[in-house]
Amino acid sequence: MNAFPRFVLHNEILSKISTPSRNYAYFLSSNHRRKYCAVTLSLSTKPAEETLVVVGGGAAGMYGAIRAKTVAPDLNVFVIEKGKPLSKVRISGGGRCNVTNGYCVDNVILAGNYPRGNKELRGSFFNMHGPTDTMSWFSDRGVQLKTEVDGRVFPISNSSSTIIDCLMSEAKNRGVVLQTGKAVTSVSTTACGKFSIKIEKRTVNYVEYIEANYVMIATGSSEQGYKLAAQLGHSIVKPVPSLFTFKIDDFQLVELSGVTFPKVRAKLKLETVQKSIPEYTQVGPMLVTHWGFSGPVILRLSAWGARELSDSDYKGSLVVDFVPDLHIEDVKAFLVQHKNKFAKQRVINSFPSELGLVKRFWRYILEYEDLVGDLLWASISNNLLIAIASRLKNCCFRVKGKGQFKDEFVTAGGVPLSEISLNTMQSRVKSHLFFAGEVLNVDGVTGGFNFQNAWSGGYIAGTSIGNLTTTAYLKEEAA
Questions:
Q1: Coil, strand, or helix at residue 319?
Q2: Positive or negative, the Cα torsion across 157, 161, 164, 166?
Q3: How far apart are CA 328 and CA 321, in angstroms?
Q4: How many CB atoms lie within 10 A of CB 239?
Q5: Which of 253, 299, 346, 422 is the most buried if burial means most Cβ atoms within 10 Å?
Q6: Which positions fall inside the RsdA/BaiN/AoA(So)-like Rossmann fold-like domain (predicted)?
């Protein structure tokens, strides 16, 4: 039995309601406290007028909504966001917002930064809207951008608010309607082929139903998007965390907390019941934390090995080469030269500058070989020099778990790319259903790649929806 009271609205009452020519849901409450009835009314006076509902007010959702409204100005566009819009944009890049990556212009190289999607994205995806297009889009709207030495693109203001203000202003100017604090809890199709969308605001027992011609799901890694996709016939690749730090089983690392290595080569070896599992290797900066390792090289390893790491309960080993630009024979030679030149100096106080190490880390290496105290360089045997060189080139750590990367939490998993057309971002399962962003089984490494996926997917989806709407208008006028 329906708990909501029933109401009937007669034609003479409806004729007195003055409304714009759009589809809305109207709500009537009874005298009983906290009971509501949702009645869906179609009040459009233009048969050709169509509606798009975007589920999710993040980067992909807002960008796609703006693009759809730009291509088809008469399209009704509603963005439904249960939290704060563009919340991930606000915190990304330490609050600066890493908009995209300016160094990857070749599609194959660009796609190589996506552990999930690296094969599929090599085609036309970025040709339709790539990093250069993204930078031009924001620049054309008054956002000044800068490209840093590693290719990351930020607003010159160094504030994510600049990006948020630009998107919000453009959405408002285009006529996109943003509704926050509401959640789309179910989507189904009607007999006439439209979408029936249930929207709830549980804090006040608020329920509404609206109909839409198009739906774009852009909910990021939220469980909400996966449930809606499944309701509409899609399968879901199990979501697992990506982009996280490593917890290391080595209490002595605490003394190195805050030490940064500009360049290391790190190899991840995993423990799993699978007979064959790949090893992942990355080169780049690494940071020592009070719980283990972080930095770009670790985050990239976590992304590429995300699913295998989940399967192995985040247990494995990490082999680090702290002097990747030097051959082991060169490292040995530098140590021998230093010994000969500084024979009477304490080993703990001096080391070859060519190795590019910091004193705290040098002490850490010596402690592994029990070479602390007043030991002089003259007392170091050749075997010990070889052992030091080997540890610098091949230092093994035990990974005992994952930490959190709070600025840019990313998920591997979601709607399989095989179930959508990347040329349009339209579902292959349900017509007029579109996806964009991280709700798909696509995720990138750090450096602006996850946002670029959002901009590209949102732009393509918005363009496709706008074009479909325009075609519908032309057919209506021709009839």
A1: strand
A2: negative
A3: 10
A4: 20
A5: 299
A6: 51-463
CATH of domain 46-239+414-478: 3.50.50.60
Q: Is the pLDDT of residue 104 over 50?
A: yes
Percent of the chain beyond pLDDT 90?
79
Which tokens belong to 250? 């080595």
To the nearest 10 degrees (0 to 180), the angle between helices 160-174 and 59-71 is: 30
- Encoding tokens for residue 76? 């009704």
| β-pair partners for 187 | 197
| Average pLDDT value for residue range 86-99 | 94
Pairing outcome for strands 195-201 and 206-212: antiparallel
Residues 6 or more apart whose Cβ sits within 8 Å of residue 126: 107, 110, 111, 452, 456
Strand stretches in 151-303, DSSP E? 152-155, 177-180, 183-189, 195-201, 206-212, 214-217, 237-242, 246-248, 260-270, 280-288, 292-294
DSSP-derived 3-state class of residue 185? strand
Q: Do residues 261 and 357 make contact, with C-beta atoms less than 8 angstroms apart?
A: no
Tell me where in the chain the CATH 3.50.50.60 domain(s) lie: 46-239+414-478
Q: Would you mind telling me the total number of residues written for the chain in this entry?
A: 479
* Encoded tokens for 103: 């160094």
34, HSE (Cβ side, Cα atoms, 13 Å): 5
Amino acid at the residue 15:
S
> What is the rounded distance in angstroms from the CA atom of residue 230 to the CA atom of residue 224?
10
Contacts of 322 (CB under 8 A, 6+ apart): 261, 264, 357, 361, 392, 393, 395
